[in-house]
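tool_call: predict_structure(chain=1)
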Amino acid sequence: MKTIKPIFLLLLFLGYPTMKVCAQNDYYFPEKNTWVEKSPTDYDIDASKLNEAVTFAKENEYSGSKDLRISILKGFEREPFHEILGPTKKRGGPAGLILKNGYIVAKWGDPKRVDMTFSVTKSFLSSVAGLAMDKGLIADANDKVGTYIWDGTFDGAHNSKITWAHLLQQNSDWSGELWGGKDWADRPPKEGSLDDWKYRKLNEPGTVMEYNDVRVNVLAYALTHIWRKPLPMVLKEHMMDKINASVTWRWHGYKDAWTEIDGLQMKSVTGGGHSGAGIFINAEDMARFGLLFLNDGKWNSERIISEAWIKKAVEPSVPNVNYGYMWWLNKKGPRHWQGLSEDIYYAAGFGGNFIVIDKANDLVVVTRWLEPNKIGEFMTKITAALP
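tool_result:
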Protein backbone atom coordinates (compact mmCIF):
# COMPACT_ATOMS: atom_id res chain seq x y z
CA MET A 1 0.00 0.00 0.00
CA LYS A 2 1.30 3.43 -0.84
CA THR A 3 2.09 5.68 2.11
CA ILE A 4 -0.86 7.90 3.06
CA LYS A 5 0.49 11.38 3.64
CA PRO A 6 -0.88 13.62 6.43
CA ILE A 7 -2.24 16.15 3.90
CA PHE A 8 -4.39 13.38 2.42
CA LEU A 9 -5.91 12.63 5.83
CA LEU A 10 -6.56 16.33 6.42
CA LEU A 11 -8.34 16.71 3.08
CA LEU A 12 -10.36 13.58 3.78
CA PHE A 13 -11.38 14.93 7.21
CA LEU A 14 -12.43 18.26 5.71
CA GLY A 15 -14.51 16.52 3.07
CA TYR A 16 -12.46 17.59 0.05
CA PRO A 17 -12.45 15.28 -2.99
CA THR A 18 -9.32 13.18 -3.09
CA MET A 19 -7.55 10.81 -5.46
CA LYS A 20 -7.98 7.09 -4.94
CA VAL A 21 -5.08 5.47 -3.07
CA CYS A 22 -4.16 2.26 -4.93
CA ALA A 23 -2.01 -0.69 -3.98
CA GLN A 24 0.74 -1.69 -6.41
CA ASN A 25 -0.57 0.48 -9.26
CA ASP A 26 -3.94 -1.25 -8.86
CA TYR A 27 -2.48 -4.45 -10.33
CA TYR A 28 -4.49 -7.65 -10.22
CA PHE A 29 -2.60 -10.85 -9.40
CA PRO A 30 -4.57 -13.91 -10.49
CA GLU A 31 -5.02 -16.87 -8.19
CA LYS A 32 -4.28 -20.39 -9.45
CA ASN A 33 -6.53 -21.37 -12.36
CA THR A 34 -8.23 -17.96 -12.14
CA TRP A 35 -8.16 -14.94 -14.42
CA VAL A 36 -10.27 -11.81 -14.56
CA GLU A 37 -11.09 -10.19 -17.88
CA LYS A 38 -11.97 -6.55 -18.39
CA SER A 39 -13.20 -4.65 -21.39
CA PRO A 40 -10.54 -2.52 -23.09
CA THR A 41 -12.92 0.43 -22.64
CA ASP A 42 -12.49 0.13 -18.86
CA TYR A 43 -9.03 1.61 -19.50
CA ASP A 44 -10.06 3.92 -22.35
CA ILE A 45 -8.38 1.54 -24.80
CA ASP A 46 -9.80 1.66 -28.30
CA ALA A 47 -11.40 -1.79 -28.57
CA SER A 48 -11.57 -1.65 -32.37
CA LYS A 49 -7.86 -0.87 -32.75
CA LEU A 50 -6.94 -3.51 -30.17
CA ASN A 51 -8.97 -6.04 -32.10
CA GLU A 52 -7.05 -5.03 -35.23
CA ALA A 53 -3.81 -5.87 -33.42
CA VAL A 54 -5.17 -9.28 -32.37
CA THR A 55 -6.34 -9.98 -35.93
CA PHE A 56 -2.85 -9.03 -37.14
CA ALA A 57 -1.31 -11.59 -34.78
CA LYS A 58 -3.68 -14.31 -35.95
CA GLU A 59 -3.13 -13.52 -39.64
CA ASN A 60 0.67 -13.44 -39.40
CA GLU A 61 1.36 -16.93 -38.11
CA TYR A 62 4.92 -18.22 -38.08
CA SER A 63 5.56 -19.75 -41.51
CA GLY A 64 7.55 -22.75 -40.27
CA SER A 65 6.18 -26.25 -39.93
CA LYS A 66 3.96 -27.13 -37.00
CA ASP A 67 6.15 -30.20 -36.63
CA LEU A 68 8.89 -28.43 -34.71
CA ARG A 69 11.44 -31.17 -35.35
CA ILE A 70 11.24 -30.18 -39.01
CA SER A 71 11.36 -26.45 -38.19
CA ILE A 72 14.38 -26.90 -35.91
CA LEU A 73 16.38 -29.00 -38.37
CA LYS A 74 15.61 -26.63 -41.23
CA GLY A 75 16.18 -23.48 -39.18
CA PHE A 76 19.66 -24.57 -38.08
CA GLU A 77 20.73 -26.62 -41.08
CA ARG A 78 23.96 -24.61 -41.47
CA GLU A 79 25.28 -25.96 -38.17
CA PRO A 80 27.70 -28.87 -38.54
CA PHE A 81 26.80 -31.87 -36.36
CA HIS A 82 23.43 -30.36 -35.43
CA GLU A 83 20.89 -32.91 -34.18
CA ILE A 84 17.85 -33.17 -31.95
CA LEU A 85 19.09 -34.01 -28.45
CA GLY A 86 16.02 -33.29 -26.33
CA PRO A 87 12.24 -33.60 -26.51
CA THR A 88 10.15 -31.61 -28.99
CA LYS A 89 6.41 -31.13 -29.44
CA LYS A 90 4.19 -30.25 -32.39
CA ARG A 91 3.01 -26.68 -31.90
CA GLY A 92 -0.43 -25.13 -31.88
CA GLY A 93 -1.64 -22.08 -33.78
CA PRO A 94 -1.26 -18.38 -32.92
CA ALA A 95 -2.22 -17.61 -29.34
CA GLY A 96 -1.70 -14.89 -26.81
CA LEU A 97 -2.86 -12.56 -24.06
CA ILE A 98 -2.69 -8.84 -23.42
CA LEU A 99 -2.76 -7.82 -19.77
CA LYS A 100 -3.50 -4.31 -18.58
CA ASN A 101 -2.67 -3.91 -14.87
CA GLY A 102 -2.89 -7.71 -14.63
CA TYR A 103 -6.37 -7.97 -16.15
CA ILE A 104 -6.92 -9.70 -19.49
CA VAL A 105 -8.12 -7.14 -22.04
CA ALA A 106 -7.55 -9.34 -25.09
CA LYS A 107 -6.82 -12.99 -25.83
CA TRP A 108 -6.74 -15.26 -28.87
CA GLY A 109 -6.06 -18.87 -29.77
CA ASP A 110 -5.65 -21.39 -26.96
CA PRO A 111 -3.72 -19.70 -24.12
CA LYS A 112 -3.84 -22.90 -22.04
CA ARG A 113 -2.03 -25.00 -24.63
CA VAL A 114 1.48 -26.10 -23.59
CA ASP A 115 4.06 -25.54 -26.32
CA MET A 116 7.82 -25.28 -26.69
CA THR A 117 9.04 -21.77 -25.97
CA PHE A 118 12.65 -21.98 -27.22
CA SER A 119 14.82 -19.00 -26.17
CA VAL A 120 12.12 -17.48 -23.99
CA THR A 121 13.62 -20.09 -21.65
CA LYS A 122 16.72 -17.89 -21.37
CA SER A 123 14.80 -15.21 -19.46
CA PHE A 124 13.63 -17.88 -16.98
CA LEU A 125 17.23 -19.11 -16.69
CA SER A 126 18.38 -15.55 -16.03
CA SER A 127 15.82 -15.35 -13.23
CA VAL A 128 17.25 -18.49 -11.60
CA ALA A 129 20.61 -16.69 -11.58
CA GLY A 130 18.90 -13.66 -10.04
CA LEU A 131 17.38 -15.81 -7.31
CA ALA A 132 20.86 -17.22 -6.61
CA MET A 133 22.19 -13.68 -6.27
CA ASP A 134 19.35 -12.69 -3.96
CA LYS A 135 20.05 -15.67 -1.71
CA GLY A 136 23.79 -15.07 -1.61
CA LEU A 137 24.71 -18.22 -3.51
CA ILE A 138 26.53 -15.92 -5.93
CA ALA A 139 28.14 -12.93 -4.26
CA ASP A 140 28.50 -10.73 -7.32
CA ALA A 141 27.64 -11.08 -11.02
CA ASN A 142 31.17 -9.90 -11.80
CA ASP A 143 32.72 -12.83 -9.91
CA LYS A 144 34.62 -15.28 -12.07
CA VAL A 145 32.58 -18.45 -12.51
CA GLY A 146 35.71 -20.58 -12.10
CA THR A 147 35.89 -19.63 -8.42
CA TYR A 148 32.55 -21.43 -7.96
CA ILE A 149 32.81 -24.21 -10.56
CA TRP A 150 36.26 -25.80 -10.24
CA ASP A 151 35.73 -29.03 -12.22
CA GLY A 152 37.62 -27.82 -15.30
CA THR A 153 34.67 -26.22 -17.11
CA PHE A 154 36.22 -22.80 -16.56
CA ASP A 155 39.90 -23.68 -16.63
CA GLY A 156 42.40 -22.24 -19.07
CA ALA A 157 43.74 -18.81 -19.95
CA HIS A 158 40.49 -17.77 -21.67
CA ASN A 159 37.67 -19.52 -19.81
CA SER A 160 39.10 -18.59 -16.41
CA LYS A 161 38.34 -14.90 -17.16
CA ILE A 162 34.62 -15.50 -17.62
CA THR A 163 32.20 -13.98 -15.08
CA TRP A 164 28.54 -14.71 -14.40
CA ALA A 165 27.70 -11.41 -16.12
CA HIS A 166 29.54 -12.52 -19.26
CA LEU A 167 27.47 -15.71 -19.42
CA LEU A 168 24.23 -13.83 -18.78
CA GLN A 169 24.97 -11.26 -21.48
CA GLN A 170 26.16 -13.93 -23.94
CA ASN A 171 29.51 -12.25 -24.47
CA SER A 172 31.78 -14.78 -22.72
CA ASP A 173 33.07 -16.58 -25.85
CA TRP A 174 33.40 -19.66 -23.60
CA SER A 175 35.30 -22.31 -25.53
CA GLY A 176 34.62 -26.01 -25.16
CA GLU A 177 32.12 -28.83 -25.51
CA LEU A 178 29.09 -29.66 -23.39
CA TRP A 179 26.53 -32.47 -23.80
CA GLY A 180 27.91 -33.19 -27.28
CA GLY A 181 27.62 -29.58 -28.44
CA LYS A 182 30.73 -27.68 -29.52
CA ASP A 183 30.70 -23.93 -28.93
CA TRP A 184 32.21 -23.13 -32.34
CA ALA A 185 29.66 -25.27 -34.20
CA ASP A 186 26.63 -23.48 -32.70
CA ARG A 187 25.38 -20.77 -35.08
CA PRO A 188 28.70 -20.45 -36.94
CA PRO A 189 29.52 -17.35 -39.02
CA LYS A 190 28.22 -17.16 -42.58
CA GLU A 191 31.78 -17.05 -43.85
CA GLY A 192 34.52 -19.64 -43.49
CA SER A 193 34.69 -23.38 -42.96
CA LEU A 194 35.01 -25.84 -40.08
CA ASP A 195 38.69 -25.14 -39.55
CA ASP A 196 38.13 -21.39 -39.60
CA TRP A 197 35.43 -21.72 -36.96
CA LYS A 198 37.22 -24.25 -34.80
CA TYR A 199 40.59 -22.48 -34.70
CA ARG A 200 39.32 -18.91 -34.59
CA LYS A 201 40.86 -16.29 -32.34
CA LEU A 202 38.82 -16.07 -29.14
CA ASN A 203 37.24 -12.75 -28.21
CA GLU A 204 38.06 -11.20 -24.86
CA PRO A 205 35.13 -11.92 -22.50
CA GLY A 206 32.73 -8.98 -22.39
CA THR A 207 33.63 -7.57 -25.81
CA VAL A 208 31.54 -9.46 -28.40
CA MET A 209 27.98 -10.71 -28.00
CA GLU A 210 27.22 -14.01 -29.73
CA TYR A 211 23.95 -15.87 -29.41
CA ASN A 212 25.10 -19.39 -28.56
CA ASP A 213 23.12 -22.20 -26.93
CA VAL A 214 26.15 -24.22 -25.86
CA ARG A 215 27.36 -21.32 -23.71
CA VAL A 216 23.86 -20.76 -22.36
CA ASN A 217 23.77 -24.42 -21.36
CA VAL A 218 27.12 -23.93 -19.61
CA LEU A 219 25.40 -21.27 -17.49
CA ALA A 220 22.57 -23.70 -16.69
CA TYR A 221 25.13 -26.35 -15.75
CA ALA A 222 26.99 -23.93 -13.46
CA LEU A 223 23.75 -22.78 -11.78
CA THR A 224 22.71 -26.40 -11.20
CA HIS A 225 25.91 -26.92 -9.22
CA ILE A 226 25.44 -23.66 -7.32
CA TRP A 227 21.89 -24.57 -6.29
CA ARG A 228 22.81 -28.27 -5.78
CA LYS A 229 19.45 -29.28 -7.22
CA PRO A 230 17.77 -29.40 -10.66
CA LEU A 231 16.83 -25.95 -11.90
CA PRO A 232 13.16 -26.86 -12.63
CA MET A 233 12.79 -27.55 -8.89
CA VAL A 234 14.39 -24.20 -8.07
CA LEU A 235 12.14 -22.32 -10.49
CA LYS A 236 9.02 -24.11 -9.24
CA GLU A 237 9.72 -23.60 -5.54
CA HIS A 238 11.04 -20.06 -5.61
CA MET A 239 9.00 -18.51 -8.40
CA MET A 240 6.36 -20.43 -10.34
CA ASP A 241 4.43 -21.74 -7.32
CA LYS A 242 4.50 -18.27 -5.79
CA ILE A 243 2.91 -16.69 -8.87
CA ASN A 244 0.21 -19.40 -8.94
CA ALA A 245 1.41 -20.95 -12.19
CA SER A 246 -0.31 -24.08 -13.44
CA VAL A 247 1.03 -27.59 -12.99
CA THR A 248 1.47 -28.07 -16.74
CA TRP A 249 4.83 -26.39 -17.50
CA ARG A 250 8.00 -28.47 -17.85
CA TRP A 251 11.71 -27.71 -18.24
CA HIS A 252 13.71 -30.32 -20.14
CA GLY A 253 17.37 -31.02 -20.82
CA TYR A 254 19.15 -33.12 -23.42
CA LYS A 255 18.90 -36.91 -23.12
CA ASP A 256 22.48 -37.35 -21.89
CA ALA A 257 22.80 -34.12 -19.87
CA TRP A 258 23.31 -35.73 -16.47
CA THR A 259 25.63 -34.46 -13.75
CA GLU A 260 26.35 -35.80 -10.27
CA ILE A 261 25.90 -33.52 -7.24
CA ASP A 262 26.03 -34.74 -3.64
CA GLY A 263 25.97 -38.31 -4.89
CA LEU A 264 22.78 -37.79 -6.90
CA GLN A 265 22.34 -37.80 -10.67
CA MET A 266 20.64 -34.59 -11.83
CA LYS A 267 19.50 -33.44 -15.25
CA SER A 268 21.10 -30.19 -16.40
CA VAL A 269 18.44 -28.35 -18.40
CA THR A 270 18.85 -26.16 -21.47
CA GLY A 271 18.35 -22.44 -21.97
CA GLY A 272 16.68 -22.91 -25.35
CA GLY A 273 15.24 -25.48 -27.72
CA HIS A 274 17.20 -25.37 -30.93
CA SER A 275 18.33 -28.95 -30.27
CA GLY A 276 15.09 -29.76 -28.49
CA ALA A 277 14.33 -29.36 -24.75
CA GLY A 278 13.91 -26.02 -22.93
CA ILE A 279 10.74 -24.84 -21.21
CA PHE A 280 7.36 -26.12 -22.44
CA ILE A 281 4.67 -23.79 -21.12
CA ASN A 282 1.31 -22.19 -21.85
CA ALA A 283 0.62 -18.53 -22.59
CA GLU A 284 -1.16 -17.97 -19.28
CA ASP A 285 1.89 -19.01 -17.26
CA MET A 286 4.10 -16.87 -19.51
CA ALA A 287 1.81 -13.94 -18.71
CA ARG A 288 2.13 -14.56 -14.96
CA PHE A 289 5.92 -14.50 -15.31
CA GLY A 290 5.66 -11.23 -17.24
CA LEU A 291 3.34 -9.71 -14.63
CA LEU A 292 5.86 -10.48 -11.90
CA PHE A 293 8.47 -8.46 -13.78
CA LEU A 294 6.01 -5.69 -14.60
CA ASN A 295 5.55 -5.28 -10.85
CA ASP A 296 9.31 -5.13 -10.21
CA GLY A 297 9.56 -8.65 -8.76
CA LYS A 298 6.62 -8.61 -6.33
CA TRP A 299 3.48 -10.72 -6.46
CA ASN A 300 0.80 -9.00 -4.41
CA SER A 301 2.86 -7.93 -1.41
CA GLU A 302 5.39 -10.78 -1.52
CA ARG A 303 8.88 -10.12 -2.82
CA ILE A 304 9.82 -12.97 -5.21
CA ILE A 305 12.92 -11.60 -6.93
CA SER A 306 14.71 -8.38 -6.08
CA GLU A 307 14.02 -5.14 -7.90
CA ALA A 308 17.77 -4.56 -7.91
CA TRP A 309 18.27 -7.73 -9.95
CA ILE A 310 15.59 -6.76 -12.46
CA LYS A 311 17.16 -3.33 -12.93
CA LYS A 312 20.52 -4.99 -13.55
CA ALA A 313 18.99 -7.55 -15.89
CA VAL A 314 17.57 -4.87 -18.19
CA GLU A 315 20.68 -2.72 -18.38
CA PRO A 316 22.25 -2.66 -21.87
CA SER A 317 25.43 -4.70 -22.18
CA VAL A 318 28.53 -3.04 -23.59
CA PRO A 319 28.78 -5.00 -26.87
CA ASN A 320 25.01 -5.02 -27.53
CA VAL A 321 22.76 -2.16 -26.42
CA ASN A 322 19.69 -4.32 -27.14
CA TYR A 323 20.65 -7.13 -24.75
CA GLY A 324 20.82 -7.37 -20.98
CA TYR A 325 20.86 -10.46 -18.76
CA MET A 326 19.03 -12.68 -21.29
CA TRP A 327 16.32 -10.08 -21.88
CA TRP A 328 16.04 -8.14 -25.13
CA LEU A 329 15.82 -4.35 -24.69
CA ASN A 330 14.05 -1.85 -26.91
CA LYS A 331 16.90 0.65 -26.77
CA LYS A 332 17.92 2.58 -29.86
CA GLY A 333 20.04 0.08 -31.72
CA PRO A 334 19.72 -2.61 -34.40
CA ARG A 335 16.64 -4.20 -32.76
CA HIS A 336 14.82 -1.00 -31.76
CA TRP A 337 11.06 -0.90 -32.37
CA GLN A 338 10.61 2.55 -33.85
CA GLY A 339 8.16 4.84 -32.07
CA LEU A 340 7.82 2.64 -28.98
CA SER A 341 9.12 3.17 -25.45
CA GLU A 342 12.79 2.44 -24.85
CA ASP A 343 11.77 1.04 -21.46
CA ILE A 344 10.12 -1.97 -23.11
CA TYR A 345 11.98 -5.25 -22.63
CA TYR A 346 11.07 -8.74 -23.70
CA ALA A 347 11.82 -12.44 -23.86
CA ALA A 348 11.99 -13.84 -27.39
CA GLY A 349 12.08 -17.37 -28.76
CA PHE A 350 12.33 -19.20 -32.10
CA GLY A 351 9.10 -19.37 -34.06
CA GLY A 352 7.72 -16.10 -32.72
CA ASN A 353 7.29 -16.63 -28.97
CA PHE A 354 7.38 -13.38 -26.96
CA ILE A 355 6.76 -12.03 -23.47
CA VAL A 356 6.78 -8.22 -23.67
CA ILE A 357 6.89 -6.00 -20.57
CA ASP A 358 5.74 -2.43 -21.27
CA LYS A 359 6.20 -0.70 -17.93
CA ALA A 360 5.15 2.74 -19.18
CA ASN A 361 1.69 1.44 -20.14
CA ASP A 362 1.31 -1.26 -17.43
CA LEU A 363 1.07 -3.92 -20.14
CA VAL A 364 2.20 -7.51 -20.46
CA VAL A 365 1.88 -8.94 -23.96
CA VAL A 366 2.30 -12.64 -24.68
CA THR A 367 2.17 -13.76 -28.29
CA ARG A 368 2.95 -17.19 -29.68
CA TRP A 369 3.79 -18.34 -33.20
CA LEU A 370 3.81 -14.83 -34.64
CA GLU A 371 6.10 -14.39 -37.66
CA PRO A 372 9.15 -13.07 -35.75
CA ASN A 373 9.79 -10.04 -37.97
CA LYS A 374 6.22 -8.82 -37.29
CA ILE A 375 6.62 -8.28 -33.53
CA GLY A 376 7.52 -4.58 -33.80
CA GLU A 377 4.52 -3.88 -36.05
CA PHE A 378 2.29 -5.88 -33.72
CA MET A 379 3.39 -3.84 -30.69
CA THR A 380 2.91 -0.62 -32.65
CA LYS A 381 -0.70 -1.61 -33.34
CA ILE A 382 -1.30 -2.34 -29.65
CA THR A 383 0.21 1.00 -28.65
CA ALA A 384 -2.00 2.80 -31.18
CA ALA A 385 -5.06 1.50 -29.31
CA LEU A 386 -3.95 3.05 -26.00
CA PRO A 387 -5.35 6.39 -24.81
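agent: Residues 120-134 form the longest helix (15 residues). Proceeding to next step.
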